[in-house]
Structure formats: structure tokens, C-alpha cells
Write a structure and sequence with these properties.
mainly alpha; two-stranded antiparallel sheet
């Protein structure tokens, strides 16, 4: 199982455990909170890193709070990285790595 599947399955199992223990109705869903907290911070760090690769500030993550903001973030995440150096340092594309779009174009050309 890959990382994403483990996160989703683990979250579902935590919700089921909270429901079985009755934690959700009477107070804080304790098991779910224990599952979400250690996974949220790395996910937030990856989102900010991706925005920095696009030469955007990490504060753009907060646009996800508004309903259509998630779509804006999705568009940002699908864009290729800024080539070379930007104001946050050398991006992934500047280290010799290719964006997924560039890699697919090169594979189709060759």
C-alpha cells in the first residue's frame, strides 16, 4: 500500500474506532485527533514547499479556507516549478529535476 492509501485507511480506521468507543458524540474524537495531528504538519510543510517551488509565499495555503480556494491551490500545485533560483532559493527544477509535465513531454518526444 502506498503512503496516500495508508493515510486514508488509517483515518477511516480512526473514525471507526472513535465511533465504536463513543468518543465522537460525547466529546473530542480522541483517536482521530491522534491520527490527524502528526500527519497534518508534514502535509502542511509539503504544501508550503510546493508553493515556494512556484515562487509563491506559503501564506497562499490559507486560501484553502474559503470554498473555492482549494481549486486555486490545485491549479497552483499542477503548475511546473520555477526554473532556476527564485526568492526562496533554488527550486526543484533548478536542481536538474524536471516538472512532471516536462518529463512527460520528453518521454513522448523520445
Amino acid at each position: 500500500m502506498d503512503v496516500h492509501a495508508r493515510l486514508i485507511v488509517g483515518g477511516i480506521v480512526a473514525l471507526i474506532l472513535d465511533a465504536a468507543l463513543g468518543n465522537g458524540q460525547s466529546g473530542t474524537p480522541f483517536v482521530t485527533a491522534l491520527w490527524i495531528i502528526p500527519h497534518y504538519i508534514p502535509a502542511l510543510a509539503v504544501a508550503v514547499r510546493r508553493l515556494h517551488d512556484l515562487d509563491r509565499t506559503g501564506w497562499w495555503v490559507l486560501i484553502g479556507i474559503i470554498p473555492l480556494g482549494v481549486l486555486v491551490l490545485l491549479v497552483f500545485y499542477c503548475q511546473p516549478s520555477t526554473p532556476g533560483v527564485n526568492r526562496f532559493g533554488t527550486g526543484r527544477a533548478g536542481k536538474g529535476a524536471q516538472s512532471p509535465v516536462q518529463a512527460r513531454q520528453q518521454a513522448n518526444a523520445g
